[in-house]
């Protein structure tokens, strides 16, 4: 069984989603895991500890002292026992306390004593989840090295509909699997920043300048990198697509300036930067605060240049970092791609041409040419973007294998 012999410490906090932990425990046990459960006092109001004790085949811990036996619950021992600590659901209250290092209950003391990896699955109402304080606290947990699953979207206990639901137990189980899959990848533990999707530049409150990018290539790269054990930050422009791997931190942006701001934040800590986004080269100088009315004659727009994200970060690139660029051209594009390779300080560039019928925006397949600093080029066959993502990551891995050998 995939989790045979693995020790999972499950923390349950107060929230209506606590009922889902019964199913999660059953899934973990069926896959061979040994499970111990810690509940906060407020969680006791949402699900019976007897239910979780029966399913986990052991006592449920929720206080430092067992009033019936007089025994002391050793939080340090619990923390050292686990191979992985999972907190699901994670309430806004417990999240804030974890982010600030508070320890006013058994769960928090155990968390602070843990030396194993930590996976959290937030669950709260829509407006709570998107509050800046909550976003800041989730970011703090990520900085601590924890895996933070994105809350699911759907109907909430308040009657509202939106993002805030605890991920389904099956999705949490998949995230648990990822901690224990063997990986010999050179990307394991590497921090990868990926820009993906289009950007939008407003003309007025109704209209914008953009392009046809779907973000498929960047999302495929993010998914495949996370599967190899990388820590992925995906800076994603407006798109209907989204990654599903729980180890990917997705930062949604709209404009080129927003993407540049987020990329500048992530780049210094990144081992690898992959620039797949189709960033608008220009933006309106003075967007209208009101909808532009239709008039007779021409409409003249003054556009100003957006920052070149890859070029700016290429100037700050460290010798230990790997930068990969993408170039989409409407002709063969070799001269343009080679120029970008030099001016943007890429280690290699991936050229797609709209002359190839299977390449370009909104497609599931692509055909590209790889060009490196030595001027060597290699054209791929027509591949699904998931397959192409694996080849690109293989090329990136070769840089680290050469360095580490």
Automatic annotation (TrEMBL):
* Gene3D superfamilies named among the record's database cross-references: CoaB-like (3.40.50.10300), Flavin prenyltransferase-like (3.40.50.1950)
State the EC number(s): 4.1.1.36, 6.3.2.5
**Sorted UniProt keywords:** Decarboxylase, Flavoprotein, FMN, Ligase, Lyase, Magnesium, Metal-binding, Multifunctional enzyme
Extract the ranges annotated as region (Phosphopantothenate--cysteine ligase).
Answer: 192-405
Copy the pathway line from the protein's UniProt record: Cofactor biosynthesis; coenzyme A biosynthesis; CoA from (R)-pantothenate: step 2/5; Cofactor biosynthesis; coenzyme A biosynthesis; CoA from (R)-pantothenate: step 3/5
Residues covered by region (Phosphopantothenoylcysteine decarboxylase): 1-191
Instruction: Give the reactions, separated by semicolons, that this protein catalyses.
Output: (R)-4'-phosphopantothenate + L-cysteine + CTP = N-[(R)-4-phosphopantothenoyl]-L-cysteine + CMP + diphosphate + H(+); N-[(R)-4-phosphopantothenoyl]-L-cysteine + H(+) = (R)-4'-phosphopantetheine + CO2
Q: Which residues form the Flavoprotein domain?
A: 6-178
| Residues annotated as domain DNA/pantothenate metabolism flavoprotein C-terminal | 187-398
Tell me one GO molecular function of this protein. Answer: phosphopantothenate--cysteine ligase activity
Which sites bind CTP? 281, 291, 326, 340, 344
Do you know which InterPro entries this protein is assigned to? CoaB-like_sf, CoaBC, DNA/pantothenate-metab_flavo_C, Flavin_trans-like, Flavoprotein
Q: Which cofactor does it need?
A: FMN; Mg(2+)
User: Bound how, and how many: what does the cofactor note say?
Assistant: Binds 1 FMN per subunit.
The protein's matches in PANTHER family, at most eight in alphabetical order, are given as:
HOMO-OLIGOMERIC FLAVIN CONTAINING CYS DECARBOXYLASE FAMILY, PHOSPHOPANTOTHENOYLCYSTEINE DECARBOXYLASE
Function comment: Catalyzes two sequential steps in the biosynthesis of coenzyme A. In the first step cysteine is conjugated to 4'-phosphopantothenate to form 4-phosphopantothenoylcysteine. In the second step the latter compound is decarboxylated to form 4'-phosphopantotheine.
Q: Which HAMAP family match?
A: CoaBC
Q: What is this protein called?
A: Coenzyme A biosynthesis bifunctional protein CoaBC
């Amino acid at each position: 069984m995939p989790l045979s012999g693995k020790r999972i410490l499950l923390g349950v906090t107060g929230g209506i989603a606590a009922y889902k932990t019964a199913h999660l425990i059953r899934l973990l046990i069926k896959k061979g895991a040994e499970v111990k459960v810690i509940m906060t006092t407020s969680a006791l109001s949402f699900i019976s500890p007897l239910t979780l004790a029966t399913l986990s085949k052991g006592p449920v811990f929720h206080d430092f002292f067992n009033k019936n036996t007089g025994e002391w619950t050793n939080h340090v021992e619990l923390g050292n026992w686990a191979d992985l600590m999972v907190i699901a659901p994670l309430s806004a209250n417990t999240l804030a306390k974890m982010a600030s290092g508070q320890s006013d209950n058994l769960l928090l003391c155990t968390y602070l004593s843990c030396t194993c990896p930590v996976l959290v699955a937030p669950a709260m109402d829509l407006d709570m989840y998107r509050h800046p304080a909550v976003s800041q606290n989730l970011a703090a947990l990520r900085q601590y090295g924890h895996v933070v699953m994105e809350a699911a979207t759907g109907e909430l206990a308040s009657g509202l509909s939106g993002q805030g639901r605890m991920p389904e137990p099956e999705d949490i189980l998949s995230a648990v699997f990822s901690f224990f899959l063997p990986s010999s990848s050179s990307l394991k533990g590497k921090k990868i920043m990926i820009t993906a999707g289009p950007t939008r530049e407003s003309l007025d409150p109704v209209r914008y300048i953009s392009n046809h990018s779907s973000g498929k290539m960047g999302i495929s790269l993010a998914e495949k990198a996370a599967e190899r054990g990388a820590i992925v930050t995906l800076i994603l422009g407006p798109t209907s697509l989204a990654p599903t791997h729980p180890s990917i931190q997705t930062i949604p942006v709209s404009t080129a300036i927003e993407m540049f701001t987020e990329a500048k934040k992530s780049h210094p800590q990144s081992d690898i930067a992959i620039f797949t986004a189709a960033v608008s080269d220009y933006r309106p100088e003075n967007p209208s605060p009101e909808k532009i009315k239709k008039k007779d004659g021409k409409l003249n727009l003054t556009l100003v240049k957006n920052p070149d994200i890859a070029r700016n970060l290429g100037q700050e690139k460290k010798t230990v970092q790997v930068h990969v660029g993408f170039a989409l051209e409407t002709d063969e594009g070799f001269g343009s791609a080679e120029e970008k390779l030099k001016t943007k300080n890429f280690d290699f560039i991936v050229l797609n041409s709209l002359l190839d019928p299977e390449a370009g925006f909104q497609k599931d397949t692509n055909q590209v040419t790889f060009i490196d600093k030595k001027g060597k080029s290699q054209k791929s066959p027509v591949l699904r973007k998931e397959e192409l993502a694996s080849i690109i990551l293989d090329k990136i891995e070769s840089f680290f294998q050469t360095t580490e050998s």
